[in-house]
Amino acid sequence: MNFSLITKLPHVGTTIFTKMTMLANEYGALNLSQGFPDFDTDPRLTGLVADAMKEGHNQYAPMIGVQALRDTIAKKYESIYNILVDAQDEITVTAGGTQAIFTAIATIVRPEDEVIIFEPAYDCYAPTVELFGGKVVPVRLLAPDFRIDWTYVKGLINDRTRLVIINNPSNPTGKVLGREDLETLAVLLDGTNALLLSDEVYEHLVFDGAQPQSVLNIPRLRERSFVAASFGKLLHTTGWKVGYCIAPAAFTHEFRKVHQFNVFSVNTPMQYAIAEYLHDIAYVRGLADFFEKKRDLLKAGLQQSRFHVLPCEGTYFLNLDYSAISSEKEVDFACMLTRQHKVATIPLSAFYKEPTDQQVLRVCFAKQDDTLQKAISILAHI
Ligand code: GLN
């Protein structure tokens, strides 16, 4: 018998992150491509996981998440923004930020719904929208400043617009939408039925004295928003896959209907450990400084090189314009860099639906200073 399967995602292959990491491993290259730290997490945190396991927290967690962790998350929003989030009815612990995004889109999007995304966009948004029959409406932003023309965005909103997805700070651009941008967005969405999905996984990684900006802090946006967040970025534990979704109670109710059949519940010992570890909000506040130093190290090291460093206001990614070195396509140049010079990066074109080539590569600076120094000594001589 010959079975055939009609693909639901004809335009999707293996993600660029997997491909570049595999290439980096194959060629023994420094891996500045996929966004993950190459340094260890705090032994106190891993110790707390071991404690939780020894204390017997090894069975299913509650579907909505361990209470202590939801309380800790609520406390974080109170400390940072002075806002109240209901730990019982508005917070759901998820298996990472991506699952929060997937489940939110699954909860919201129906066939023919239009979803506005901003490109370069993180890779999971468009395929997930399409999986649920939605139509992606991309807004193309270009290097070097990736500026959003809100008047143009307003022109795209119509009766079929079901959702707008923002990523703040933005992976891969490193741009931060400030309070003013968010207020403009609130005005723009006023009187429409469009909901907002705000991917805030890099929320606390904002530099140069900027303050984190959650849409939860803008009441007119909060009432129509799902917020996705991740502990992977916060605790240097991308492999743990623990995150959360915050949404108004009625939205959360629907979100949980999908969530319970998607993962049901998230690994228990990590939830207890994170709840305990984040009692100290000073850790969260100190994170921006930690990564800002790494950004500055890489930026300063490349100042004399032929790479032009684009502005980076947040996240742990820096974009490098290599047009002074080559006019090769981004994918080809990135592969060449990995194979010949042993530094793996991500071509920015991977974050656009239509072919785009701006001679820009994304590099991740969530790396030990030593790794960054090694990368600098290579890149500075190209
Ligand atoms: N968030 C990571 C990045 O942007 C990738 C995660 C993944 O590989 N899916 O590099």
Automatic annotation (TrEMBL):
Named cofactor requirement(s) = pyridoxal 5'-phosphate
Q: Give yes or no: UniProt keyword Membrane.
A: no
Top EC group: transferase
Q: Which GO terms describe its molecular function?
A: kynurenine-oxoglutarate transaminase activity; methionine-oxo-acid transaminase activity; pyridoxal phosphate binding
- Give the EC number(s) listed in the UniProt record: 2.6.1.88
Superkingdom is Bacteria
Q: Which GO terms describe its cellular component?
A: cytoplasm
Task: Please provide an example of a Pfam family that matches this protein in its UniProt record.
Answer: Aminotran_1_2
Keywords from UniProt, A to Z, are: Aminotransferase, Pyridoxal phosphate, Transferase
Q: Which PANTHER family match?
A: FI04487P
What name goes with this protein? Methionine aminotransferase
**Which lineage?**
Bacteria, Pseudomonadati, Bacteroidota, Sphingobacteriia, Sphingobacteriales
